[in-house]
Design brief:
There is one protein chain. Helices cover 42% and strands 14% of the residues. The chain is of the alpha+beta class and 459 residues long. It has 2 domains: 26-357, Beta-lactamase, CATH 3.40.710.10; 367-453.
Amino acid sequence: MRLAVVLGVLAFALLAAKASSDGGISDRLARIVPERMAADGVAGAVVVLIEGGAPVWTGAFGMADPATGRPMTSDALFRVESISKPVTAWGAMRLAETGRLDLDAPVDDCLTRWSLPEGAGRITPRALLSHSAGIGLGDYAARFPPEGPRPDLPEHIAQDVTLITAPEPGFSYSDTGYNLLELVIEDCTGEDFGALMAREVLSPLGMTGASFDWIGADMPVGHDLRERPVATYVYPGRASGGLHATAADIARFAIAGMAGADQPVLSPEGVAALHRPEVAVGGLFGFAAQGYALGHFTETLSDGRAAVWHGGQGHGWMSHVHLVPETGDGIVILSNSQRAWPLFATVLRDWSVSLGTAPVGMASVLRAERAARGAIALGLAVAALGLWRAYRDAWRPLPLRVLAGGIALVLILWPLWAATRDYLFLFSILPGLWPWLAAASALAGLGLAALAIAPRRRG
């Protein structure tokens, strides 16, 4: 344990020294973003750096549409996917502070177009905001052409809602929960969600390019995990992932959440409530966050400062916003590629070092890369050793043959199965490495299969 701590401190010190020698963080980002994009096959990205509660640098990289050669621009409009959730949380808190929504009342008090299923228990807007309502993730693949027919929100929720636990037992990330919150807001206020959010949050914060409604702009072309272009689409619900915005819009939103920010939407107490952890985060999310507040993931940096953030991943799009409210530091990263997680992790690692802290939780994606490279090396070693022992050994006991054959079957078949999937978490965190990992696994399987089936040699 002590050795791990010492190695971690040394690694952080080396990163800090390298960042210092490379000049400012903006200079470093201008170098590493194109390099990382090229390595991972990321089409384009826009990055905004925030210091002292103000944007100080914006970089636009790569292509808005590689097929036509259209370059990325800093004012490009993106699908920001789940960054929609913290913006929705601002809307809900705005309604709460102006007496139009009770965050702790049962949602059934408002709902008129749909009712919770029997046995749902007491679900509140606060539980929906903090992902503690016990509702399942939902169908994140429910996508429809912007101009085509799609189910209305009550119909979609009726088909999509799944109760996995009783309300408020713990964290369970849910797109459906936020879409239900959208329905609650509409039924409580009698207004369209998109129009209400534009008037109450987006416009007052100066997010002039942002909208929860499809506006048909000439957006960059999204690209999936196999680098294929993605047709434009919309979701049935908007609160969970339907916001369109520029990087500058998201930077304005982040700045509004800084301590002492001059913004007309929420009181300082309301902003603080949005950032206060409501529930501990576990599972895969636990590698990147410690808690979830109202629409925001939370973590404590290595120097004791509190940070809040949210990311988003959709079909062909990725987004991330990270802020340290106490000091006014923040960063926004938007990409028209679903292969951008390692890019985001690299940017966040170096940004953390520029703040004088250890890398933020989202940078842990880079640990998966190191583990994958180790697994690739191990797979190749097992393949070579298996083939060599199969040739050299004169005798292998039957139990060893059976064990080797069983492991070989798994190592060969899982890459074939993975190749048939449209999405696996592995694809997102290892977009450039997973084919090599799959190949090394298959080769290791062949080496073990040789051990299992090679005929016995006579001495």
